[in-house]
Design a protein that fits this description.
single chain, 166 residues
Amino acid sequence: PPPPPAPPSRPASSGRIVIALVVVGLIAVVALVVGIIDLARPASSGASKASMAASPSPTFTPDQVAGAKKDLCTTYRVAARSVKQDTNAEDVAIARVAVTNAAGMLEAAANNPALGGSERDAARNLAAAYRNADAISSVFDKTSPVFQQAVDDVNRLDGVMAAACP
Protein backbone atom coordinates (compact mmCIF):
# COMPACT_ATOMS: atom_id res chain seq x y z
CA PRO A 1 0.00 0.00 0.00
CA PRO A 2 1.12 3.49 -0.68
CA PRO A 3 2.31 5.55 2.25
CA PRO A 4 -0.28 7.84 3.83
CA PRO A 5 -0.20 11.42 2.57
CA ALA A 6 1.83 13.80 4.64
CA PRO A 7 -0.24 16.25 6.66
CA PRO A 8 -0.34 19.71 5.12
CA SER A 9 2.02 22.07 6.81
CA ARG A 10 2.16 25.79 6.74
CA PRO A 11 5.39 27.29 5.79
CA ALA A 12 7.19 28.61 8.84
CA SER A 13 7.79 31.91 7.10
CA SER A 14 4.07 32.93 6.93
CA GLY A 15 3.96 33.56 10.69
CA ARG A 16 7.02 35.76 10.41
CA ILE A 17 5.46 37.70 7.55
CA VAL A 18 2.35 38.45 9.60
CA ILE A 19 4.46 39.63 12.53
CA ALA A 20 6.60 41.78 10.23
CA LEU A 21 3.49 43.37 8.67
CA VAL A 22 2.05 44.14 12.12
CA VAL A 23 5.32 45.75 13.20
CA VAL A 24 5.51 47.83 10.01
CA GLY A 25 1.89 48.91 10.49
CA LEU A 26 2.55 49.97 14.09
CA ILE A 27 5.62 51.95 13.03
CA ALA A 28 3.55 53.72 10.35
CA VAL A 29 0.84 54.61 12.87
CA VAL A 30 3.41 55.96 15.35
CA ALA A 31 5.07 58.02 12.60
CA LEU A 32 1.70 59.44 11.58
CA VAL A 33 0.83 60.41 15.15
CA VAL A 34 4.24 62.05 15.67
CA GLY A 35 3.84 63.95 12.41
CA ILE A 36 0.39 65.23 13.36
CA ILE A 37 1.62 66.34 16.78
CA ASP A 38 4.58 68.11 15.18
CA LEU A 39 2.31 69.95 12.74
CA ALA A 40 -0.04 71.02 15.52
CA ARG A 41 2.75 72.35 17.73
CA PRO A 42 3.56 76.06 17.28
CA ALA A 43 6.94 76.72 15.74
CA SER A 44 9.18 77.84 18.56
CA SER A 45 12.62 76.65 17.62
CA GLY A 46 15.66 78.44 18.89
CA ALA A 47 16.46 79.70 15.39
CA SER A 48 13.09 81.35 14.96
CA LYS A 49 13.32 82.90 18.42
CA ALA A 50 16.73 84.30 17.58
CA SER A 51 15.54 85.77 14.29
CA MET A 52 12.49 87.27 15.98
CA ALA A 53 14.62 88.79 18.70
CA ALA A 54 17.05 90.18 16.15
CA SER A 55 14.40 91.95 14.07
CA PRO A 56 13.14 95.08 15.77
CA SER A 57 9.45 95.84 15.82
CA PRO A 58 8.45 98.20 13.03
CA THR A 59 8.21 101.86 13.78
CA PHE A 60 5.74 104.17 12.13
CA THR A 61 5.87 107.85 11.44
CA PRO A 62 3.35 110.11 13.16
CA ASP A 63 1.67 110.56 9.77
CA GLN A 64 1.27 106.79 9.35
CA VAL A 65 -0.18 106.44 12.83
CA ALA A 66 -2.57 109.34 12.26
CA GLY A 67 -3.57 107.94 8.85
CA ALA A 68 -4.27 104.50 10.32
CA LYS A 69 -6.45 106.00 13.04
CA LYS A 70 -8.25 108.22 10.51
CA ASP A 71 -8.96 105.20 8.28
CA LEU A 72 -10.21 103.17 11.24
CA CYS A 73 -12.46 106.00 12.42
CA THR A 74 -13.87 106.59 8.95
CA THR A 75 -14.62 102.89 8.65
CA TYR A 76 -16.16 102.84 12.12
CA ARG A 77 -18.46 105.77 11.36
CA VAL A 78 -19.75 104.15 8.16
CA ALA A 79 -20.18 100.76 9.86
CA ALA A 80 -21.89 102.23 12.92
CA ARG A 81 -24.26 104.32 10.81
CA SER A 82 -25.19 101.27 8.75
CA VAL A 83 -25.81 99.19 11.88
CA LYS A 84 -27.89 101.93 13.49
CA GLN A 85 -29.98 102.47 10.36
CA ASP A 86 -30.54 98.83 9.47
CA THR A 87 -31.06 97.40 12.95
CA ASN A 88 -33.78 99.95 13.66
CA ALA A 89 -35.72 99.01 10.53
CA GLU A 90 -38.19 96.16 10.18
CA ASP A 91 -36.17 93.76 7.99
CA VAL A 92 -34.28 91.39 10.28
CA ALA A 93 -32.25 89.90 7.42
CA ILE A 94 -30.94 93.32 6.39
CA ALA A 95 -30.09 94.08 10.04
CA ARG A 96 -28.08 90.88 10.30
CA VAL A 97 -26.26 91.65 7.06
CA ALA A 98 -25.41 95.14 8.33
CA VAL A 99 -24.03 93.79 11.61
CA THR A 100 -21.97 91.11 9.87
CA ASN A 101 -20.64 93.57 7.32
CA ALA A 102 -19.75 96.10 10.03
CA ALA A 103 -17.83 93.44 11.96
CA GLY A 104 -15.83 92.55 8.86
CA MET A 105 -15.12 96.19 8.06
CA LEU A 106 -13.85 96.84 11.60
CA GLU A 107 -11.68 93.72 11.60
CA ALA A 108 -10.11 94.71 8.29
CA ALA A 109 -9.43 98.27 9.45
CA ALA A 110 -7.99 96.99 12.76
CA ASN A 111 -5.37 94.97 10.89
CA ASN A 112 -3.38 98.11 10.06
CA PRO A 113 -0.09 97.64 11.95
CA ALA A 114 0.31 101.40 12.45
CA LEU A 115 -2.72 101.50 14.74
CA GLY A 116 -2.28 101.89 18.45
CA GLY A 117 -3.24 98.96 20.64
CA SER A 118 -6.20 100.68 22.26
CA GLU A 119 -7.81 101.58 18.92
CA ARG A 120 -7.15 98.09 17.54
CA ASP A 121 -8.63 96.46 20.65
CA ALA A 122 -11.68 98.73 20.59
CA ALA A 123 -12.38 97.86 16.94
CA ARG A 124 -11.86 94.13 17.41
CA ASN A 125 -13.97 94.03 20.55
CA LEU A 126 -16.84 95.84 18.83
CA ALA A 127 -16.55 93.52 15.82
CA ALA A 128 -16.73 90.50 18.13
CA ALA A 129 -19.77 91.97 19.89
CA TYR A 130 -21.47 92.54 16.52
CA ARG A 131 -20.84 88.90 15.55
CA ASN A 132 -22.03 87.64 18.92
CA ALA A 133 -25.24 89.69 18.72
CA ASP A 134 -25.81 88.43 15.19
CA ALA A 135 -25.47 84.80 16.29
CA ILE A 136 -27.66 85.32 19.35
CA SER A 137 -30.34 86.97 17.23
CA SER A 138 -30.69 83.67 15.37
CA VAL A 139 -31.68 81.86 18.53
CA PHE A 140 -33.31 84.40 20.86
CA ASP A 141 -36.03 86.97 20.22
CA LYS A 142 -35.78 90.67 21.06
CA THR A 143 -37.45 90.23 24.46
CA SER A 144 -34.93 87.63 25.67
CA PRO A 145 -32.51 88.71 28.40
CA VAL A 146 -29.71 86.96 26.47
CA PHE A 147 -30.45 89.06 23.40
CA GLN A 148 -30.72 92.22 25.49
CA GLN A 149 -27.32 91.49 27.08
CA ALA A 150 -25.78 91.12 23.61
CA VAL A 151 -27.30 94.46 22.57
CA ASP A 152 -26.00 96.07 25.78
CA ASP A 153 -22.51 94.73 25.01
CA VAL A 154 -22.66 96.18 21.50
CA ASN A 155 -23.80 99.55 22.85
CA ARG A 156 -21.10 99.58 25.55
CA LEU A 157 -18.33 98.68 23.10
CA ASP A 158 -19.70 101.13 20.54
CA GLY A 159 -19.23 103.80 23.21
CA VAL A 160 -15.59 102.77 23.63
CA MET A 161 -15.08 102.92 19.87
CA ALA A 162 -16.84 106.29 19.64
CA ALA A 163 -14.54 107.64 22.35
CA ALA A 164 -11.52 106.43 20.36
CA CYS A 165 -12.88 108.21 17.27
CA PRO A 166 -14.16 111.59 18.49
